[in-house]
Structure of Xanthine phosphoribosyltransferase:
Amino acid sequence: MKRLHDMINQEGIVLSDQVLKVDAFLNHQVDPTLMWEIAYEFMDRFQDAGITRILTIEAGGIAPAMMTALRLGVPMVYARKTKSVTLNEGTISAEVFSFTKQQTSTITVAEKYLQPGERVLIIDDFLANGEAAFGLARLVEQAGAEVAGFGIVIEKSFQPGRQKLIEAGFRVESLARVESLKDGRATFVDSVTV
Ligand code: 5GP
């Protein structure tokens, strides 16, 4: 997705060979028009997949997930990373190791917002080692629902998440596939895209 590549190049900050900061348009300040275009891409790729719900994880996934839910006309739910007193009914949880925080946390969703038989599109801002993605997939499976696929805004293709998800039989659609963050700049796997 060309506009996303351009935003990463113009506004993204390469913090190290491993970490890209996109606080200018996705992870802190959020660019609504870019989110709306991202949602169009996900809608285009998944509109025939029978999606009934979108699942993401707070906080970075919420903006693209929300817009995609609006485009597809389905509900969106985000997994919580901290236990809230309001999350007091039946819940489903999974353990996730955080790449950015280097610690394990429990992610939780209320079971009434993830029903058996649903076809769930999982959306997230980044795919690195696949920990968050597999944690979200475990929530869906525990609910008796089905993962229809993963919609990833920025995939770091030099890390193993994508390969692990593909090997596990999942469909993965990433809008920017970062090949490398070496020498302070992002390069892409497929730089000629729409
Ligand atoms: P994974 O679980 O695939 O290892 O990492 C994905 C999660 O870690 C995403 O939900 C995202 O919040 C965070 N993450 C991983 N890599 C990066 C990165 O380079 N930059 C930012 N901002 N977040 C990242």
About this structure: The pocket of guanosine-5'-monophosphate is lined by residues 19-22, 27, 57, 60, 99-100, 124-133, 161 (CB under 6 Å). The chain has one domain: 2-188.
